[in-house]
Design goal:
2 copies of one chain form a homodimer. Chain A has helices at residues 10-21, 34-44, 71-77, 133-146, 155-185, 194-206, 216-219, 222-231, 236-257, and strands at residues 2-6, 25-30, 47-49, 61-64, 84-87, 103-109, 126-130, 150-152. Chain A is α/β, with parallel strands linked by helices. The first copy, chain A, folds into 2 domains: 2-153, 3-Layer(aba) Sandwich (Rossmann fold), CATH 3.40.50.720; 158-257, N-(1-d-carboxylethyl)-l-norvaline Dehydrogenase, domain 2. In chain A, helix 1 links the parallel strand 1 (2-6) and strand 2. Chain A is elongated.
Chain lengths: 258, 258
């Protein structure tokens, strides 16, 4: 199987490596920035291109791994006819590829990728979708070689999953960043929080998070909440977040009881 | 050393076990609810009491592990003179014990405790404070037997640390609970997010969270943000949180650049 990767960012990089390790051939890496295309292509023994004229349209699979906003534009620039064309976005509908090929689909690895850290895709869920059963079967075949967890979802379900991932990953990471800022402003060592963070995560491996919620909000401990808000007086951003999150804890608890 | 524990909740339980394992004697467990006092006292080979008349004032250490609001009231009910009296609260000043004994201090284990799960206190930071150097030395001696990380902080610093813990532990747990609710509303399996959650945490073991922030907010990907807000239209609580957290990610990034 001959693969062309469109894009050179984190997802392009991790997918490229995974295809390579699964014994596939990545023949080309395209990026508007030839330096970036070169950097990734070199690690994959592929050709780097920055011009669609040089595209090898004899490849079996074209996989678009670029910013969501650019997906449709690039799909149409490819000028494919019936080659398999996939995008890798959690929040973009399959429809973004409509008209760009007769065989279109989605190949969304549900993970947070950074260039600094390699990831074993075998445990990463790959969410797939296609415009027809025959195409879906091909995509499933490709995904099965990379991951043990291949799941078909429609675009609407995939968007919800991606939204859940924003809460579970991006927003939790940000709360930890805020905690670090809070501590360091007062000369406290952020490392002190690490055992707590580990235990928080360890608890939810076996339990639903809502069932192990702790803290002043769930206890309705107004005195502590007020003393925390006093500490945040200088920072309206954090103080508002504190209030909203505390209220949200109470609300979720009511919903799950109701 | 003879210890009396006031309280029967999670912290009382975990500290009781830790003292016991460190070879100390817990002589009494007090709770307003004698059933609860009995449940904990039984596991510690201690006497359960629900009446301050029965308090063994010959003990060396009285440790208050009750709701923050009740600390001062119980401290005064003890009618001690010069026995060592500690509370275990992150967000309560040492001053809550003033006048209740001449030797007062704080013994705050920075961890999230639940009855279902036992915890090795050796890796848990214990934050200590006292009203005089002589008392601090005694508290440090006690804490050193339970944990490898004993740190002296004043009440203001401890409150900030506790606030950081609310962001890093309680609020992150809540975001995971919200993610689970979002997915399950649409019939999606929350387990799908687990590899992502693990990777999110694994990334920040070696990196500052702000430096590994990902997601639509940090990319300023307005199209994705808008599509997420559309998905949350039915839920003003979540939609508002989404907006605030996204804005806060942008704000923190600006602060750290500025």
């Amino acid at each position: 199987m001959k693969i062309v990767i469109l894009g050179s960012g984190n997802i392009a990089t991790h997918l490229g490596r995974a295809f390579k390790m699964a014994g596939q051939t990545v023949s080309q890496v395209w990026s508007r920035d030839i330096t970036k295309a070169n950097a990734l292509a070199d690690t994959l023994a592929a050709e780097a291109i920055d011009n669609m004229f040089d595209l090898d349209r004899s490849a079996d699979l074209f996989i678009i791994a670029v910013n969501d906003e650019a997906i449709r534009k690039i799909a149409l620039e490819l000028k494919l006819s019936d080659q398999l064309l996939l995008h890798t976005s959690g929040s973009t509908g399959l429809s973004a590829l409509e008209g760009a090929s007769t065989k279109i689909g989605v190949f969304y690895p549900l993970q947070t990728f950074s260039k600094i850290k390699s990831i074993d895709l075998r445990q990463v869920p790959i969410i797939i979708e296609a415009n027809m059963a025959e195409v879906l079967a091909i995509i499933r075949g490709i995904a099965d070689r990379l991951s043990e967890k291949v799941i078909e979802l429609n675009s609407e379900q995939r968007k919800t999953l991606h939204l859940g991932a924003v809460f579970a990953c991006n927003f939790t990471n940000h709360l930890l960043a805020l905690a670090q800022e809070l501590l360091e402003e007062k000369g406290l060592d952020y490392e002190l929080l690490k055992p707590l963070i580990q235990e928080t995560l360890s608890k939810i491996e076996m339990n639903d998070p809502a069932s192990v919620q702790t803290g002043p909000a769930i206890r309705k401990d107004q005195a502590t909440i007020q003393s925390h808000l006093d500490l945040l007086k200088h920072n309206p951003d954090l103080s508002e977040l504190y209030t909203k999150l505390s209220q949200s804890i109470v609300n979720l608890h009511k919903r799950s009881e109701g």
